Amino acid sequence: MTHLSEGAAAALSRWLEEERALAGASGHTIAAYRRDVSAFLGFMALHRGGPMGVPAIADVTIADMRAFLAAERGRGLSSRSLARRLSAIKSFCRWLAEREGVEPTAILAARAPKFRKTLPRPLSEEAAGQLIDTVELQARDCWQAARDVAVVTLLYGCGLRISEALSLTGRDAPLPEVLRIFGKGGRERLVPVLPAARLAVQDYLSLSPWPKEGDGPLFRGARGGPLSPRQVQKATEAARMQLGLPSSATPHALRHSFATHLLAAGGDLRAIQELLGHASLSTTEGYTAVDESRLMRIYEAAHPRA
Fold this sequence. Notes:
Blueprint: H1 6-21, H2 27-48, H3 54-58, H4 62-74, H5 79-100, H6 105-109, H7 125-135, H8 142-158, H9 162-166, E1 178-182, E2 188-192, H10 195-207, H11 229-243, H12 251-264, H13 269-276, H14 281-287, H15 292-302
Antiparallel strand pairs: 1-2
Helix pairs in contact: 1-2, 2-5, 7-8, 7-11, 8-10, 8-12, 13-14
């Protein structure tokens, strides 16, 4: 980080360490934060003509911020990505303000570009079942087919993220009736495991050529290493194309579908929030697409003047 002074580089490292240790940020999040803040400070070093030390960060002007945002848009960064980058930069600068006493007023006052939040598109119950069944047809070997079915069954049947399913180890199998999951931010939750999911994992283990190891990955790739998320995405993509489903039919859409179908069956939104491991209820609301006809039925049944 030649565009940073030693003091600024040390401050960035301390902030990232606190985010990891105290806020429970994942390795992927820490790497993204480092890229975002480094990109900003690198631009400012070139723009202002010198390495960025902690005092120099406080000297950044509104004009400098406009130049940075314009340059990022010019590189093709989307509004969503730019808003995320600016959020990381501001978080670092707030930390600097508390720890170092600097006042990065212009940075904190910069407005993020507006963007329309796209709601996830869950699959219908029929399409979700077809997708799981068709994933089995995409692999070359029977054990890999059983593995892919087990993974996507966990995504839909338990509402797991891909990273959570692939972080399971041999010690987690055979799957219990209730699984302890550590999700984003290190948040712990208990997730009921459907019999179909337990059976799918057992079928995979009975066919796998790789021995189950306590600390080893439960789901393995063709050469015995940890299964990559990309492999799950490729299998799902092939199944989606075979079924003629839209491009929104991704592995993560199965997690959306888990939430939506639970809610449609009368599940409580707070309980679904716990099952998904969301820190905010508003995040859960974005995952649960409920059709207007169901809302009207609830209204007519519950409202005294309906």
